[in-house]
Predict the 3D structure of the following.
Amino acid sequence: MSRIAFHLNCLAQGGAERVVSSLANQLCAMGEDVYIATEWQEENEFEIDKRITRVHVGLHEDDEKKSRIAKFILRVRYLKDFVNEYKPDILIAFARRANYRALMAAGNSSTPVLISIRTDPVGHYDALSDKIQIRWLFPKAAGCVFQTKGQKEFFYPYLQDNSRIILNPINPKYIGIAPVDENKKEKAVVHHARLVDFKNQPMLLKAFIKVHERFPDYVLRLYGGDSKDGTKEILEDIISTNNAQNYIFLMGASDDLEHELPKGMIYAFSSDWEGLPNSVLEAMSLGMPVISTDCPCGGPATVIRNMENGLLVPIKDENALADAMIKLITDRELAISLGNEARHISDIANSAAVAQQWISYIQFILNNQRRH
């Protein structure tokens, strides 16, 4: 049995958090001793096995009035205290600040640190402070898990030889859903993701308005919660300005997407940047003909082979997105073929397959640690 510890901010409903929760539960079921060290706790979090030990390593109540630098030092100290007390065989960090904290807290100890990159590094890891920390800290990492080749290349020359590219695990509820009969599908383009600026849903609406001019019997349905960054209001204004209330619908969040999405004819994704978008993986697993922007750092292009199991269009290109939707509306034979091929993504990105890749990599690092 190995002691395996994860470190991230919290377990709120998000991509990295879902990966950690899924992986931790899998490892726990295999008999490993699993810990999750988090900075804080949210109301709506992923469930974890009761046998997993969760430890608070964030700021204490009396720390909140301290300076920013003091808080930074304390966060590292509390994580270091966790490592010293629980003595995990490996510490696995998810996301930018957690990566830095883990390497500062344990990078010079006998506990190997495995970090993970979960977003587009451009705009997130390229500030001066990041460049300094990457040069100082990343050589201390025992390994790194990337989602895409583009992420890995960004950090050259660091982490090139001691890293792996591993896909996100698809939520099991999206796997094995029977396809909807073509004759029973609704004339709808569907999309699911939280409403937030970098997903560029305004472009999706504007592109669909052009599609609707040619195909007035088609509607657009966007599923997803409001991020409160103003995107929802922008979308509502586009709908109002174009009198589109009868054919563009903001559906809000839903727990039944595995049944709602396949009712549509086409799935469209419009992000300007991503890590590896779970939305695309889920839509593909459902057998949807997927259109996605070919956004950096290459997440959609990692899983979509253009014209084989989906369509890729340039980012911020409203006309290209509209043309792709029109293509799949007019060529249903192509759309069905893309959807059938897309469904195979679940063969390599199901929870068990992804967990096995992580487990094999973790064991590789532990074996190296024991040899040295």
